[in-house]
Amino acid sequence: MSSKKNSDRFIVVIDQDKIEPDLARETVINFDPLNRAGKEGGFYIDDKEELHIDDDDVMAAHRMAIKKYPYDNAIRMVQLISEEEGEPLHQFGNNTFRLYGAPAPEKGNVVGILGENGIGKSTALNILTGDLKPNLGRYDEEVEWSEIKKRFRGTGLQQHFNKLAEGNVDAAVKPQQVERMPDAYDGKVRDLLEKVRDAQEESERKDLEALAEEFEVAKLMDRDLEELSGGELQRVAIASTALKDANLYVFDEPSSFLDVRQRLKMANKIRELSEDAAVLVVEHDLATLDLVSDRIHVFYGEPGSYGMVSNTMSAKDGINQYLEGMLESHNLRIRDEPISFDRSKRSQVEKKRAVMEYPRLEKDFGEGEFSLEIEEGEVHREEILGIFGENGLGKTVFAKMLAGVIEPDNTESLDISISFKPQYLEAKDETVREAISKHINPQNKRFEVRIAEPLGLEDLYDQDLEELSGGELQRVGVAICLAKDADIYLLDEPSAYMDVEARVELGKTLKRFARKTEKPLMVIDHDLMLLDYISDRGVVFSGEPGIKGTADSPERIENAMNEFLKEVSITYRKDPETNRPRGNKPGSQKDKQQRKSGQFYEQ
């Protein structure tokens, strides 16, 4: 088995915003082994007062000089995993991120893309849609299409780059952060969809009303975008993308804020688009990615430094090899340790003291509006209580009643302090450090060890919230929630936009926090793998979305998972290699077998 680092080639990535020229001269440049020996090729300051070093001159000995610079992550020296990709497909500048390779779109197939955030997935998508012309690593010059096509002659990308060069790629892209849609468009859902439809050639316009029914947005047509929830915005975004006449469809994280049933339905709708076009899907929910993809490319490398792209694999093999951290066709280890979701160790929380006992809760928002009934329950010390249910059944209303934001109809609000993380954090014009400092000193040792370090916040402190990606915003939101002093911590969809590695770290962080503080957590999420991994018990919501919701008392997690999947009529099996949950195709032999036995979630 090959080691993770099997290349003799190094690259350097420099954050110029963290470079002080005089300090760099005193440290990095002064201690550079080439500079000290009077040779050419070492670190230097250019006429813009920026620090640089040419890629061809970087060697292992430069690590010593880099360590002399006192600011963390200002200069990163990275050893490439492999040199097999040759020169970059694209590089943004000297000592900046570079991408090696890209997936090959193919009509009739849904190509899944799996990899950490910051590894080049968005760059690849921008290239494939024609929004970014690849420069083959020559960032300081214009590269002709003839040379780009020549580079990829005889590969799966040849045909696509030919189409790009001729201007024959019509791409429809669903953006990642759907919660920002109201900032870009101020109006009703109908107005937005009609605008998208009318922008198409008249002969190619799709039936708007029929499409609205298919994508479950018909009831939203006369509502303003700013009034919609995250799941509703996601469905509108997917519908508006599908409404376009395109030969390449790109869906960036289509599962975020959708419940399990909606994820299955949207996966099927996306697959239907591939009958007449090529489809690319970036997705971190592995169960959804497994269902929607015909084949998968794995992105690997070093986040923020460089990214590489694997050969094409089946959906099952791609996901399993990614979790294992070993790409068999490349004979290449991309991660030191496998990613595992150990479902065997459950805390006996029922034996611990109850922190909160909540009575039966009722809320009726008026005639023809939503109503909710919650059976009584209790939450124990150290417990993580998973909250299951389709969107529109009152999970967030339940959370707000517990938090005192909404008053129940049949009882007074609970006299208990709850720290509540909403679906998404509003991106204000302030730094991450400023946002966190409102609740705790970021240098507090417990905060650093229990929350900031595992969630990787240090590199974000000096960035504005408005500059953060969706996954980064979620990490900040989780950190702020856990930083508060409260009796119970309630997190609404904390995994949205997080990559697989971040979700694993999120799960470990939440479990560690609960055990160390002995405080209970309640987590609303739609990633069944995450909920099964972290939850001790579960509460299942059922009913009719948008009309009426009910919830039983908490029960053992395995029973809650099974009850929930039976409610939404979906069966999940356990992958024999990784133990991860995989959705069964409706009507398959395994699906029929599990339904007959009543085991909707295979243990």
Automatic annotation (TrEMBL):
Pfam families in alphabetical order: ABC_tran (PF00005)
The AAA+ ATPase domain, residue ranges: 107-302, 381-545
Gene Ontology molecular function: any one: translation initiation factor activity
UniProt KW Nucleotide-binding keyword: yes
Region annotation Disordered: where it falls in the sequence: 570-603
Source taxon at top rank: Archaea
Alphabetic keyword roster: ATP-binding, Initiation factor, Nucleotide-binding, Protein biosynthesis
Claim: RNA-binding is one of the keywords in the record: no
InterPro entries linked to this entry: AAA+_ATPase, ABC_transporter-like_ATP-bd, ABC_transporter-like_CS, P-loop_NTPase, RLI1
NCBIfam families: PRK13409.1 (NF009945)
Name this polypeptide is given: Translation initiation factor RLI1, contains Fe-S and AAA ATPase domains
Gene: rli1
